[in-house]
Design a protein that fits this description.
The complex is a heterodimer of chains A (253) and B (344). Chain A has 253 residues and is an alpha/beta fold. Chain A has ten helices and ten strands. In chain A, the strands form two sheets. A six-stranded mixed beta sheet of chain A has the order 6-7-8-3-9-10, with helices on both faces. A four-stranded antiparallel beta sheet of chain A has the order 2-1-4-5, with helices on one face. With 344 residues, chain B is mostly helical. Chain B has one domain: ABC transporter involved in vitamin B12 uptake, BtuC. Helices cover 74% and strands 2% of the residues of chain B. Chain B contains 14 helices and two strands, in the order αααααββααααααααα. Chain B has a two-stranded antiparallel sheet with strand order 1-2. In chain B, strand 1 and strand 2 form a beta hairpin. In chain B, helix 2 packs parallel to helix 6 and helix 10 packs parallel to helix 12. The radius of gyration of chain B is 22 Å and the shape is globular. Classes of the chains: A alpha/beta (253), B mainly alpha (344).
């Protein structure tokens, strides 16, 4: 059974089909790439899976459970994390505070105990502070923990975005253009990090325009064009797929 | 340098204790009941401003703060007059009432942040005022008169504290203010406050991190409204009479002004400074009551246009001088330079 099963998923904005009858399976411990020209519906796919947008029709099942129509926070609690395309961060907060906030789901102690500063709640908060530092160190951001997120250079903002998603400890992580706008060195580092995350047991779906990164990273690739899935297969199959080539380069006359 | 750093950390606490000491000793120095009255009104204003700021901290703008102020005042007045309860029992019940009504209303309206929330809270405020004015059981437009003073507090050794002069009211309101501030402070510094800030800074990101926007906003709405209820209850027994007009939409705009003037990013200190200025300044300028709204409106527009950070936000923007600020700035530059190498 697939970890994530998408069946007949459609999303219309007025008369425009951003997603149209998409079927897609994501299997445990794989890295699945989703590619396609601009406006193909890749980000909409992520928004619908994570509950930020309701689908027009179709179902999404995660670990066998139907999660269609749940709120974004409910879906996050079931183990789906994501990063955003633009650097969507808590810009006015420090790097540390960003990740600290992202650990929201991991508190076991009730909120009133945290409010009253009960010893058990304080101990828990201390533990989470340490885990925040672990995540920051893992992503190489520890020395920048007191900087405001909005003041970070682009590459570091991307890394912070991944820190936030990692802090939720997702079973399935959706990465929206994690290396776009990065220089080759940063890209290599990020590709390594994504591999490391997968080896740590996280299943990953990645939307990206950087073909070199996608081809080297992904086990399988799905291609969207005008909201439809036009191909799915190994990187080798996708590279030689006539429909995909046409979608990107146009038909030969 | 070490001296300046240690001053900055312990300085906050020292400053706080100093202000507290001044506030506690003030009635011993000030003989004028009029000034004491203005201070009491300031304290009430601070509480109300803090309720606006709490909702603002979750990305909600309310124009209905005065509605819950009214609910607290009317509940307390009616409970003492009609049911014969003591103020000391009516105060918590009025707080509860404001909270329960906020829970009922909030469970519907916090789902629609943005303009819808602003409009609905404003309309709710108007409805509350109309209800108080229109229903004879609630006193009508003439209001409620003869609301009893709080029962005396029997203090050991000192004897009973009677609520006759303004001084006991001053200490009562100061105590209520400090209690509410403490509760709010603890909330802001817990994971609840962090969730609120996250919702304000980026609702979509907060939600994908598992934060239930609806529940956290509702929590803020209920807590803030309860605090407004406390202020309302106190007000009713301090003035011993209430009229619907005191809680109109204009009052809600005033409350908003306290927070905006002081600084919207300073959830406790902002309303404190804003309320103090807005209470004392018109009195000292001896502004005619008729043109006061004009000045208030102009002030609000000017602050939003030219000083969006309010007083505290504007002060913070000025770079601090001295070695501490210099070394901090150098540290920033160093971090920034080092940051380039970090990912590699």
């Amino acid at each position: 059974m697939a970890l994530l099963e998408i069946r007949g998923l459609s999303k219309y904005f007025g008369g425009l089909a951003a997603l149209s009858e998409v079927d897609l399976d994501v299997f445990e411990s794989e890295i699945l790439g989703v590619i396609g020209p601009n406006g193909a519906g890749k980000t909409t796919l992520f928004n619908v899976i994570t509950g930020l947008l309701p689908p027009t029709s179709g179902r999404v099942r995660f670990k066998g459970e139907d999660i269609t129509g749940l709120r974004a926070d409910q879906i996050a609690r079931r183990g789906i994390g994501r990063t955003f395309q633009a650097s969507v961060l808590f810009g006015q907060a420090t790097v540390f505070e960003n990740v600290f906030t992202a650990f929201h789901m991991h508190y076991q102690q009730p909120g009133w105990k945290a409010f009253l500063r009960a010893p058990s709640a304080r101990a828990e908060e201390e533990l989470i502070r340490r885990r925040v530092m672990e995540v920051l160190e893992f992503m190489g951001l520890a020395p920048l923990k007191d900087e405001l997120a909005m003041n970070l250079p682009h590459g570091h903002q991307r890394a912070l975005g991944i820190c936030l998603a990692l802090a939720t400890n997702p079973k399935l992580l959706l990465l929206d253009e994690p290396v776009t706008g990065m220089n080759p060195v940063e890209t290599t580092t990020m590709v390594e990090l994504i591999r490391k995350m997968r080896d740590g047991g996280t299943t990953i779906v990645i939307v990206e325009h950087d073909m070199r990164a996608i081809m080297s990273l992904c086990d399988r690739i799905a291609v969207l064009n005008y909201g439809r899935k036009i191909a799915e297969g190994s990187p080798e199959e996708i590279r030689n797929n006539q429909q995909v080539i046409e979608a990107y380069l146009g038909k030969k006359k | 340098m070490r001296l300046t750093i240690s001053w900055r950390t312990s300085g906050k606490l020292a400053g706080l204790l100093l202000v507290l000491a001044v506030l506690v000793l003030l009635p011993l120095v000030i003989r004028s009941p009029y000034l004491i009255h203005l201070l009491i009104m300031t304290f009430i204003g601070v509480v109300l401003g803090m309720t606006f700021s709490m909702l603002f901290s979750t990305g909600l703008i309310t124009l209905g703060a005065a509605a819950f102020y009214a609910i607290g005042a009317y509940t307390s007045a009616l409970l003492t007059l009609n049911a014969g309860l003591s103020f000391w029992l009516a105060l918590p019940l009025a707080t509860l009432m404001a909270g329960v009504i906020a829970l009922l209303l909030g469970s519907i309206i916090v789902r629609n942040p943005g303009v819808a929330f602003v409009v609905i809270t404003f309309i709710f405020n108007a409805v509350v005022v109309e209800a108080a004015g229109g229903l004879r059981q609630l006193g009508g437009w003439g209001g409620i008169l003869g609301i009893p003073r709080p029962d005396p507090i029997p203090l050991p050794f000192y004897g009973p504290v009677e609520f006759i002069t303004k001084t006991p009211y001053y200490y009562l309101m100061l105590a209520l203010l400090l209690l509410i501030m403490l509760v709010f402070y603890a909330l802001y510094n817990s994971r609840i406050g962090r969730a609120w800030r996250a919702i304000k800074l980026s609702p979509a990101l907060a939600e994908t991190l598992g934060i239930n926007l609806y529940r956290y906003r509702l929590l803020a709405f209920v807590i803030a409204s309860s605090a407004a209820g406390v202020a309302g209850s106190f007000y009713a027994h301090y003035f011993q009479s209430i009229i619907p007009e005191a809680f109109g939409g204009w009052t809600s705009i005033y409350i908003q002004l306290y927070s905006v003037l002081g600084g919207l990013d300073f959830y406790l200190l902002g309303p404190a400074i804003g309320a103090a200025i807005m209470t004392f300044l018109p009195e000292f300028l001896r502004v005619a009551k008729e043109i006061e709204p004009l000045i208030t409106g102009a002030l609000l527009v000017m602050i939003i246009l030219f000083f969006p950070g309010g007083i505290l936000g504007t002060l913070r923007q000025f770079p601090r001088l001295g070695p501490a600020s210099l070394s901090a700035r150098l540290g920033e530059i160093k971090n920034w330079l080092l940051s380039g190498r970090n990912l590699r």
